[in-house]
Design a protein that fits this description.
CATH topology of chain B: Rossmann fold
Number of helices of chain B: 9
Largest sheet of chain B: 6 strands, mixed
Distance between the termini of chain A: 28 Å
Order of helices and strands of chain A: HHEHEEHEHEHEEEEEHEHEHHHHH
Shape of chain A: elongated
Radius of gyration of chain B: 18 Å
Strand order of the largest sheet of chain A: 2-3-10-5-7-6
Order of helices and strands of chain B: EEEHEEHEHHHHEHEHEEH
Oligomer: heterodimer
Number of helices of chain A: 13
Helix content of chain B: 25-40%
Largest interface: A-B, 23 and 25 residues
Number of strands of chain A: 12
Shape of chain B: globular
Strand content of chain B: 25-35%
Distance between the termini of chain B: 35 Å
Number of domains of chain A: 2
Strand content of chain A: 15-25%
CATH class of chain B: Alpha Beta
Largest sheet of chain A: 6 strands, mixed, barrel
CATH superfamily of chain B: P-loop containing nucleotide triphosphate hydrolases
Chain lengths: 411, 234
């Protein structure tokens, strides 16, 4: 008997027991859909975190004051920001190509949270003092106006570039560039607006006011040492020179601070290491959730085996008759295997469809991205087929071994 | 000329625990092509076991059985399946039709296992149903047919492979007298067309339809009877 005829016979057998076949497939369906959705959610979360961290800029090193127990290996920095050990001088040393040839740009950042006033509106925002390289280092662009220049930094000019959220909150939808806002009693003129970026791991990237570092130090800083900065962003020339830039930064700051690795009072963290930490965290979660989903898939497989066993018992007379009429044990084995595989395969296909539907519909409900992975879909299909076959082997071999006379005799 | 069925010293013993029960003992039986033989006997006489051996549904524990010159005594389950498919058409007491399939789909089953193409299967199944007078019932399911009609479908299924032997096991056991006469007439007709028929029954009237009768008693063959003796022996 050909495979095609076997398939037809199996389809007939499953169709005559529609409800039961559908319920059996449901187990596989739910299992496959659950695995697809958890894997999709995990990958979506990973991608979101990675994207957000990458939004900080590319080939980025982040130098923070304070030491870290893990010495920059992860994102945990003990005592970060608690001591003002980084200064504008450190930024100047790192920007020197003779000291650090693999560093392309440096953007020191000092920040404070201050009240803003424009006309009758007030708004509290993060005020950041920095240098003209900031947009390049942080991979940001301007939607309106311009960024401040090196000359304006030297001149301590009262100018500011503001984020789109700040602009909307403080100045409404009217033309922003040229308006004057008051920060901590100082009048500054808005010269540019940043292109909206959205939220990242660091909070709303569009609620910010950027002023020249010198202006910040002279007029706005509340710190005891106006030359201290809270973070220095360092951009390496390219991805290959990132590790060299990391070494140069550490070496230069160790020597300028006169400290050793043991007494290091700053932390250099590579953006990649933050990505890795975040990724590995969400990967652990994905694996955990997927294993739970995989258990439901296993339960579905046991359901298929159960139903196939019941089916063999129920159809003893049919099996006996088919054997009497000339079906060899192999043909009977195949028929039951194909039936079980079909249950698995069709259940798997339905599960994948449900999983894909979920991946499309779910993000709009939970505002969380769900990745659609073709690999997960293909794997799900293979797994459901394998489960069908595995669950069918035992019942099928029982059916094949039945003696035709015993089978015919049974009532 | 060798016999179509040739049983020599055939025995079948079943062991249940320490006890050995001989269901069939040392049976010698030859059936020529074109014969119409009835095997009679009360229940427990071993006629069902003998029928299973003749039908290649079981193998003898001792002795030899040749079907159409082929020794089937030592064949494997898979080989026996092929022999059953090619050489034997079964008619069962319980009809044994699959309730979910239409009449013609039931009739085509042996051809399915013989590897015949779909279109030829349908055509041959329809021809066989025509021969048993059910040309207008081919799409009916067994549940929609009377007992006599169901047994006609199973006769059609037995005929469809053009087998060497038609083996009927109590074919009228579940039928009323009108249908019984109907099926017996059909078997006679097939015999007249040259088919070899072996009929197992415990009813004298049914056995009387055959050309030759053997009686089983306690697992062995008793005196052969002529059909007229069978009627007298009631």
């Amino acid at each position: 008997m050909s495979w095609l005829e076997t398939l037809r016979t199996a389809v007939d057998a499953l169709r005559t027991r529609r409800l039961r076949s559908a319920l059996t497939m449901l187990g596989i369906l739910i299992g496959i859909a659950a695995v697809m959705l958890t894997v999709g959610l995990g990958q979506g979360a990973q991608k979101q975190v990675t994207d957000q961290i990458n939004k900080l800029g590319s080939n980025l090193l982040i130098v923070s004051p304070g030491s870290s127990p893990s010495a920059g290996a992860g994102g945990v920095r003990g005592g970060r920001g608690t001591v003002g050990t980084l200064t504008m001088d450190d930024a100047a040393i790192l920007a020197d190509p003779a000291v650090a040839p693999d560093i392309a740009r440096v953007a020191p950042v000092s920040s404070a949270s201050l009240a803003l006033i424009a006309g009758t509106s007030t708004w509290t925002s993060s005020i950041v003092g920095t240098t003209p390289d900031w947009p390049a280092v942080r991979a940001r662009t301007l939607s309106e106006g311009r960024f401040f220049t090196a000359d304006e930094v030297i001149a301590e000019s009262p100018v500011a570039v503001i984020g789109s959220t700040t602009a909307t909150q403080l100045l409404g939808t009217t033309s922003v560039v040229g308006q004057t806002i008051t920060i901590g009693g100082q009048n500054v003129t808005v010269i540019g607006v940043l292109t909206a970026e959205g939220s990242t791991v660091g909070g709303d990237q569009d609620d910010v006011v950027l002023v020249p570092q010198s202006t910040f130090a002279a007029r706005l800083s509340t710190s005891a040492n106006p030359r201290s900065v809270s973070t220095i962003y360092v951009e390496a020339r390219d991805a290959e020179s990132l590790s060299a830039a990391y070494q140069e930064t550490t070496k230069a700051l160790l020597s300028s601070h006169g400290v050793t690795v043991a007494t290091q009072d700053f932390t250099v963290s590579a953006q990649q290491s933050i990505v890795d930490t975040a990724t590995s965290t969400s990967r652990v979660l994905t694996v955990l959730l997927s294993s739970i989903a995989a258990i439901s898939l296993l339960v579905g497989g046991i359901g298929v085996m159960n139903i196939m066993l019941v089916s063999v018992t129920e159809r003893i007379r049919e099996i006996g008759l088919r054997k009497a009429l000339g079906a060899t044990p192999t043909v009977i084995l195949r028929q039951f295997l194909v039936e079980a595989s079909l249950l698995g395969l069709v259940g798997g296909l339905a599960g994948i469809s449900l999983g894909l539907l979920g991946a499309v519909v779910l993000p709009s409900i939970v505002s969380f991205p769900v990745a659609i992975s073709p690999v997960a879909a293909a794997a799900g299909l293979l797994v459901s087929l394998a489960i069908g076959i595995a669950a069918g082997v035992y019942p099928a071999s029982r059916a094949a071994r039945l003696a035709p006379i015993d089978a015919l005799r049974s009532e | 000329m060798t016999a179509l069925l040739d049983l020599r010293g055939v025995s079948k013993t079943y062991s249940s625990g320490a006890l050995e029960v001989a269901a069939v003992r040392d049976v010698d039986l030859q059936v020529q092509a074109g014969d119409y033989l009835a095997i009679m006997g009360p229940s427990g006489s071993g006629k069902s076991t003998l029928m299973h051996i003749i039908g290649c549904l079981d193998v003898p524990s001792a002795g030899h059985y040749s079907l159409a010159g082929e020794d089937v005594s030592g064949m494997t389950e898979a080989q026996l399946a092929v022999v059953r498919n090619r050489r034997i058409g079964f008619v069962f007491q319980q009809f044994n039709l699959l309730p979910t399939l239409s009449a013609w789909r039931n009739v085509e089953l042996p051809l399915l296992y013989a590897g015949v193409s779909r279109s030829e299967r349908r055509q041959r199944a329809l021809t066989a149903l025509g021969r048993v007078g059910l040309a207008d019932r081919v799409e009916h399911r067994p549940g929609e047919l009377s007992g006599g009609q169901q047994q006609r479908v199973s006769v059609a299924r037995a005929l469809v492979t053009e087998p060497d032997l038609i083996l009927a096991d109590e074919p009228t056991g579940n039928l009323d007298s009108a249908s019984t006469a109907d099926i017996l007439a059909l078997l006679c007709e097939l015999h007249e067309q040259g088919r070899t028929i072996v009929l197992i029954t415990h009813e004298h009237e049914v056995a009387a339809a055959a050309q030759r009768i053997v009686v089983m008693r306690d697992g062995g063959l008793a005196e052969p009877l002529t059909p007229s003796q069978a009627v007298v022996g009631r």
